[in-house]
C-alpha cells in the first residue's frame, strides 16, 4: 500500500507541468467548500488534523482509521436558487488506513427555454455532480498519504460533459507538539466528454498548508497557500475608477503572495467545541468596492460535539451578492 501511494505521487508530479498549464478551466464548482469547518477558516484548509470526515475532501491524506464508520452531510445555499450539498462515508481498512466514498452536487435551479422572440418552450435544469472514492494510509508514524479519485458530470441544458480527476495529498503530523504540514495537488486529470468539440482544462490547484496549536493557549492557527501554479492572480479592483485590468494586475510580490494566502484561527476551549475565524486577502480585494462591506474577506464558524453528532456551521462571503451560510453534520454510526 505504501509503495502504491508513493508511486502514484511520483508519476503524477511528473505530469504536473502539463496539468498546470494556464488558461480557462471548467468545473470550477470543485473549488467550492464542502467542509463547514474549512469554510470558516477561509474556504480551504488542507492541514487541520481533526476528527472530522469533511476535512478529507480538502486533503485525502487526512483520511485515517480514526474516522471509521463516520458519515458526513453538508448543505450550502450558495446564492438565490443555487443549492449545494455533499455526503461522505468512511471505513477503516486496518489500524493504518481507511477508505471513503461520497458525492457532491450543485443545483443551479430551473431556467426557462425560450425562442429568439421570447416564446417559452419549456424549462430545463442545470447541475454539476462529482462522485469520489478516496484512500488514506500511514506511510510511517508521522507521514500519511492519500489519493482521491473523482468522476465529474455537468449538464447545462442540451450540453453535457464528463471528466476524471484525482487529488494527491501528503500530511506530516507530530502529535506531541500538535503540528501538521500538508501538500496537495488537486484536480489532476482531463475531460472524457467535452461540452463542445474543444477539450478544456480542469481547475488544477497546488496547495501547501500548516497548522499549529499554541503551547500555552487553546488556540490553533492555520496558514494555507493556494493556486501556487498560477502565481500572478489578475483581478479588477472595483474601488478604483477609470483604470485598466492590466494596470490593476501589476502588483508587487507581497500583494501577490497575500492573494494566495488564507489565514485561519481556531479557539478550542474544550475538546468538544471550537470557534473558527478565517481571512482571505484575495476575496477582500475581489469584492472591495462591490458592496461587500467591512467584513468582506472574513469568514467564521463554530462546531460542537453532542454524543454521536458533530454539528458545524459557518458563514462566508463567496460572491458579491452577500454572505453564504453552510451547515455540516458529522455522525459516528458507532456510539462514541
Keywords:
Porin, 14-stranded antiparallel beta barrel, mainly beta, about 10% helix, about 325 residues, 6 helices
Give the class-level CATH name.
Mainly Beta
Query: Sheet with the most strands?
Result: 14 strands, antiparallel, barrel
Number of strands: 14
- What is the element string, with H for helices and E for strands? HHHEEEEEEEEEHHEEHEEE
Structurally, the number of domains stands at 1
Which structural class do you get from the secondary structure elements? mainly beta
Number of helices: 6
CATH superfamily: monomeric porin ompg
- CATH architectural category: Beta Barrel
Report the mean per-residue pLDDT as an integer: 85
CATH-defined topology: Porin
**CA-atom Rg in angstroms:** 20 Å
Give the distance, in angstroms, between the N- and C-terminal Cα atoms: 29 Å
Summarize the structure.
This protein is mainly β. It has one domain: Beta Barrel (Porin).
What does it look like?
This protein is mainly beta and 336 residues long. It is 12% helix and 51% strand. The chain has a single domain (2-19, 40-332), classed as monomeric porin ompg (Porin). A 14-stranded antiparallel barrel has the order 1-2-3-4-5-6-7-8-9-10-11-12-13-14. The protein is globular. The model is unreliable at 2-23 (pLDDT under 50).
What's the arrangement of secondary structure elements?
Elements: H1 2-14, H2 16-19, H3 36-40, E1 70-79, E2 82-94, E3 97-114, E4 120-138, E5 143-156, E6 159-174, E7 179-193, E8 205-213, E9 219-225, H4 245-249, H5 253-260, E10 261-270, E11 273-280, H6 281-287, E12 298-306, E13 309-319, E14 322-332
Antiparallel strand pairs: 1-2, 1-14, 2-3, 3-4, 4-5, 5-6, 6-7, 7-8, 8-9, 9-10, 10-11, 11-12, 12-13, 13-14
Amino acid at each position: 500500500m505504501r509503495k502504491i501511494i508513493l508511486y502514484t505521487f511520483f508519476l503524477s508530479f511528473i505530469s504536473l507541468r502539463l496539468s498546470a498549464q494556464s488558461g480557462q478551466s471548467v468545473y470550477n464548482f470543485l473549488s467550492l467548500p464542502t467542509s463547514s469547518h474549512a469554510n470558516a477558516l477561509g474556504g480551504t484548509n488542507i492541514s487541520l488534523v481533526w476528527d472530522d470526515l469533511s476535512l478529507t475532501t480538502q486533503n485525502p491524506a487526512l483520511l485515517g482509521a480514526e474516522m471509521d464508520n463516520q458519515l458526513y452531510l453538508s448543505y450550502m445555499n450558495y446564492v438565490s436558487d443555487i443549492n449545494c450539498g455533499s455526503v461522505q462515508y468512511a471505513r477503516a481498512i486496518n489500524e493504518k488506513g481507511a477508505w471513503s466514498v461520497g458525492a457532491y452536487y450543485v443545483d443551479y435551479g430551473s431556467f426557462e427555454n425560450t425562442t429568439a422572440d421570447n416564446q417559452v418552450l419549456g424549462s430545463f435544469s442545470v447541475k454539476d455532480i462529482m462522485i469520489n472514492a478516496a484512500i488514506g494510509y500511514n506511510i510511517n508514524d508521522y507521514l500519511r498519504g492519500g489519493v482521491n479519485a473523482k468522476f465529474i458530470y455537468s449538464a447545462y441544458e442540451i450540453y453535457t460533459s464528463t471528466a476524471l480527476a484525482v487529488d494527491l495529498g501528503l500530511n506530516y503530523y507530530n502529535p506531541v507538539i500538535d503540528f501538521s504540514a500538508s501538500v496537495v495537488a488537486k484536480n489532476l486529470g482531463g475531460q472524457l466528454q467535452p461540452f463542445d468539440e474543444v477539450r478544456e482544462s480542469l481547475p488544477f490547484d497546488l496547495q501547501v498548508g500548516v497548522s499549529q496549536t499554541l503551547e500555552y493557549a487553546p488556540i490553533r492557527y492555520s496558514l494555507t497557500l493556494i493556486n501556487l501554479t498560477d502565481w500572478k492572480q489578475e483581478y479588477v479592483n472595483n474601488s478604483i475608477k477609470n483604470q485598466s485590468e492590466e494596470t490593476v494586475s501589476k502588483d508587487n510580490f507581497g500583494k501577490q503572495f497575500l492573494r494566495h494566502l488564507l489565514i485561519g484561527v481556531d479557539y478550542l476551549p474544550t475538546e468538544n467545541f471550537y470557534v473558527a475565524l478565517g481571512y482571505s486577502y484575495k476575496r477582500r480585494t475581489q469584492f472591495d468596492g462591490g458592496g461587500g462591506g467591512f467584513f468582506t474577506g472574513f469568514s467564521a464558524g463554530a462546531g460542537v460535539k453532542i454524543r454521536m453528532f458533530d454539528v458545524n456551521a459557518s458563514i462566508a462571503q463567496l460572491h458579491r451578492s452577500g454572505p453564504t451560510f453552510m451547515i455540516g453534520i458529522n455522525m459516528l454510526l458507532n456510539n462514541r
